[in-house]
């Protein structure tokens, strides 16, 4: 039996993500939580003739507790999205508190659940969740994931003409680092099967993966950021976590984790100088079984990208940790 919970289920990402989870044969129970509209979204989805039994909750009447109790996997797309001209870090002011409070709920009502954080800025919201879990004495680094799958999905899509896959999702193109601008590092040299990108196209392709989010923010012109591609990516990652938890072997996905708490992660943490980092992770019954180091043998260009990523990540991580350790005055 798998119970999945979506926190922020009525939003632009929350609704299509809930649809995909409701339609998935891997999910037996689905609970939707948001500060608005969950009764309607749950009623609508409940007419779909799939396995999952669906319920919707609002904050009143212990809604968060009821949604989270018994959860195996919790996905968090709660929080505000960007508008043109904003960086993901500009979302910190509002989303940091939202993620902190939802993480407190998870610590209390579903401390053993896999927690998948989508809310931006991921580079800071994942450290926030980790600090909340630590303070509550329930932190298991193998069970906390920042969802960076959309960066991988974009890399697969944007390089299709070089990878040559009819179905671009069949390419393996690792993207490491974090989830904002220069902290996003596509490692094209580590793609498998390998392919060559012409030198005059390289910078533009890296830039497109790093700033793919901005492309959507601009096109939506004030109406938000990526929602449908994110729902696809979030579902892909959630599905991978669920399949691995059920014993399926060989599932590897890049995700933003607390490296010192995952087997193999210490080495990557030493090499990069950061504790939180997105790297390919082998998933298993208990979550992140092994962090895979693919940083050896990267190209000189990729080394430079990694340096810039780490410099940005350090501040983002510190900001998240500080937010919980030394909360700003109310
Ligand atoms: N990790 C990634 O790759 C990506 C992350 N994002 C991020 O995901 C977040 C959500 O984006 P959208 O769905 O487009 O935004 P949205 O505004 O459409 O939806 C957010 C939902 O969160 C709900 N919410 C707000 N406070 C809440 C709380 N305390 N508890 C529960 N629900 C709450 C809102 O009522 C709303 O329904 C944003 O922070 C965005 O930047 C977006 C795309 C990609
Ligand atoms: O760009 C944004 O703000 C949303 C996001 O994280 C993405 O699309 O990668």
TrEMBL record:
<dbReference type="Pfam" id="PF02866">
    <property type="entry name" value="Ldh_1_C"/>
</dbReference>
<dbReference type="InterPro" id="IPR010097">
    <property type="entry name" value="Malate_DH_type1"/>
</dbReference>
<dbReference type="GO" id="GO:0005829">
    <property type="term" value="C:cytosol"/>
</dbReference>
<protein>
    <recommendedName>
        <fullName>malate dehydrogenase</fullName>
        <ecNumber>1.1.1.37</ecNumber>
    </recommendedName>
</protein>
<dbReference type="InterPro" id="IPR001557">
    <property type="entry name" value="L-lactate/malate_DH"/>
</dbReference>
<keyword id="KW-0560">Oxidoreductase</keyword>
<comment type="similarity">
    <text>Belongs to the LDH/MDH superfamily. MDH type 1 family.</text>
</comment>
<comment type="subunit">
    <text>Homodimer.</text>
</comment>
<dbReference type="Pfam" id="PF00056">
    <property type="entry name" value="Ldh_1_N"/>
</dbReference>
<feature type="binding site">
    <location>
        <begin position="118"/>
        <end position="120"/>
    </location>
    <ligand>
        <name>NAD(+)</name>
    </ligand>
</feature>
<dbReference type="InterPro" id="IPR001236">
    <property type="entry name" value="Lactate/malate_DH_N"/>
</dbReference>
<feature type="binding site">
    <location>
        <position position="120"/>
    </location>
    <ligand>
        <name>substrate</name>
    </ligand>
</feature>
<feature type="binding site">
    <location>
        <position position="95"/>
    </location>
    <ligand>
        <name>NAD(+)</name>
    </ligand>
</feature>
<dbReference type="GO" id="GO:0030060">
    <property type="term" value="F:L-malate dehydrogenase (NAD+) activity"/>
</dbReference>
<dbReference type="InterPro" id="IPR015955">
    <property type="entry name" value="Lactate_DH/Glyco_Ohase_4_C"/>
</dbReference>
<dbReference type="GO" id="GO:0006099">
    <property type="term" value="P:tricarboxylic acid cycle"/>
</dbReference>
<feature type="active site" description="Proton acceptor">
    <location>
        <position position="179"/>
    </location>
</feature>
<keyword id="KW-0816">Tricarboxylic acid cycle</keyword>
<feature type="domain" description="Lactate/malate dehydrogenase C-terminal">
    <location>
        <begin position="148"/>
        <end position="324"/>
    </location>
</feature>
<dbReference type="InterPro" id="IPR036291">
    <property type="entry name" value="NAD(P)-bd_dom_sf"/>
</dbReference>
<feature type="binding site">
    <location>
        <begin position="8"/>
        <end position="14"/>
    </location>
    <ligand>
        <name>NAD(+)</name>
    </ligand>
</feature>
<feature type="domain" description="Lactate/malate dehydrogenase N-terminal">
    <location>
        <begin position="3"/>
        <end position="146"/>
    </location>
</feature>
<feature type="binding site">
    <location>
        <position position="82"/>
    </location>
    <ligand>
        <name>substrate</name>
    </ligand>
</feature>
<feature type="binding site">
    <location>
        <position position="88"/>
    </location>
    <ligand>
        <name>substrate</name>
    </ligand>
</feature>
<feature type="binding site">
    <location>
        <position position="154"/>
    </location>
    <ligand>
        <name>substrate</name>
    </ligand>
</feature>
<dbReference type="GO" id="GO:0019752">
    <property type="term" value="P:carboxylic acid metabolic process"/>
</dbReference>
<keyword id="KW-0520">NAD</keyword>
<dbReference type="InterPro" id="IPR022383">
    <property type="entry name" value="Lactate/malate_DH_C"/>
</dbReference>
<feature type="binding site">
    <location>
        <position position="230"/>
    </location>
    <ligand>
        <name>NAD(+)</name>
    </ligand>
</feature>
<feature type="binding site">
    <location>
        <position position="34"/>
    </location>
    <ligand>
        <name>NAD(+)</name>
    </ligand>
</feature>
């Amino acid at each position: 039996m798998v119970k999945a919970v979506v926190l922020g289920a009525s939003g632009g990402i929350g609704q299509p993500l809930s649809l995909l989870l409701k339609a998935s044969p891997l999910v037996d129970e689905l609970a939707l939580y948001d500060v608005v509209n969950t009764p309607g979204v749950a009623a609508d989805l409940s007419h779909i003739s799939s396995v999952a039994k669906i319920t919707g909750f609002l904050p009143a009447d212990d809604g968060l507790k009821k949604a989270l109790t018994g959860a195996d996997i919790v996905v968090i797309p709660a929080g505000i999205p960007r508008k043109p001209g904003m960086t993901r870090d500009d979302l910190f002011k509002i989303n940091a508190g939202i993620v902190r409070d939802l993480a407190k709920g998870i610590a209390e009502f579903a401390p053993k659940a896999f927690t998948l954080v989508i809310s931006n800025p991921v580079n800071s919201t994942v450290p926030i969740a980790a600090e909340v879990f630590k303070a509550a004495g329930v932190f298991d680094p193998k069970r906390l994931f920042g969802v960076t799958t959309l960066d991988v999905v974009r890399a697969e899509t944007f390089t299709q003409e070089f990878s040559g896959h009819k179905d671009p999702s069949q390419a393996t193109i690792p993207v490491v680092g974090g989830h904002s601008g220069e902290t996003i590092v596509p490692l094209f040299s580590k793609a498998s099967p390998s392919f060559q990108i012409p030198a005059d196209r390289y910078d533009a392709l890296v830039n497109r993966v790093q700033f793919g989010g901005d492309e959507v923010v601009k096109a939506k012109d004030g109406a938000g950021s990526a929602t449908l591609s994110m729902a696809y990516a979030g579902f892909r990652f959630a599905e991978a976590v669920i399949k691995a938890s059920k014993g399926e072997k060989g599932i590897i996905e890049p995700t933003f984790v607390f490296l010192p708490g995952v087997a193999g992660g210490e080495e990557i943490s030493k090499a990069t100088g950061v504790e939180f980092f997105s790297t390919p992770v082998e998933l298993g019954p208990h979550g992140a079984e092994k962090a895979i180091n693919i940083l050896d043998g990267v190209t000189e260009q990729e080394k430079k990208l990694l340096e810039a990523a780490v410099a940005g990540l350090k501040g983002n991580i510190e900001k998240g940790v500080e937010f919980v350790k030394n909360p700003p005055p109310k």
